[in-house]
Design brief:
This protein is mainly alpha-helical. The protein has 7 helices and no strands. The longest helix is centred in the last third of the chain and has 25 residues. The radius of gyration is 26 Å and the shape is elongated.
Length: 183
């Protein structure tokens, strides 16, 4: 049986994070509390490597584990090392959860849409009329439009045709409408 162990202390993500951490500290930047005294155990290196790969890929991460396992420290470390100064949209936001934490605590309660079928039927009716108007407009000014604008307009026509037939989805129709209006 082969030994399938992987030495995460030598992982490229861990090395990169350690190098960036050392460079920031050497440059005189003041790290958040505790980050300067991180002990790079194999388990911590594994956690940093896996979280770092998720961050690099833009994937969400759910960290579950015992208290004191280094989950928060790993996230704070990666946040401080990888995020550039002044980018508030990319700062770390910590949410403390407990056993009774529910999804609604994060996103609020969701209310069902009442009369969705009636709303979609009225959209379908209006779509049929709008399709005729857009088709006439597209034919009269085809030479003046850009390629992107014509592509957005043809996508909107396709979505309107589907909506007029009672097919398609409100989401795809609204996306096509926003794209056409932007062009």
């Amino acid at each position: 049986v082969k030994d399938l162990r992987f030495d995460y202390t030598q992982d490229e993500v861990v090395k990169s994070v350690r190098d960036r951490l050392a460079a920031k500290v050497a440059a005189g930047e003041d790290p958040p509390a505790g980050i300067g005294q991180v002990v790079w155990t194999p388990a911590f290196c594994r956690m940093v490597a896996l979280i770092g790969r998720c961050v690099r890929s833009g994937e969400p991460v759910l960290l579950v584990g015992e208290t004191g396992g280094g989950k928060t420290m790993a996230c704070q470390l990666l946040s401080w090392v990888l995020v550039e100064e002044g980018k508030n949209e990319r700062t770390l936001r910590t949410v403390n959860c407990h056993q009774q934490t529910e999804t609604s605590d994060f996103i609020g309660s969701l209310c069902p849409v009442r009369g969705r079928d009636a709303t979609f039927n009225s959209i379908c009716t209006v779509s049929a009329d709008l399709e005729v108007v857009i088709k006439a407009h597209a034919e009269t000014s085809a030479s003046e439009k850009s390629a992107e604008g014509m592509q957005a307009l043809s996508r909107l026509q396709r979505e309107l045709r589907l909506a007029a037939q009672g097919q398609g989805t409100p989401k795809s129709l609204s996306q096509a409408l926003r794209l056409a209006l932007a062009r």
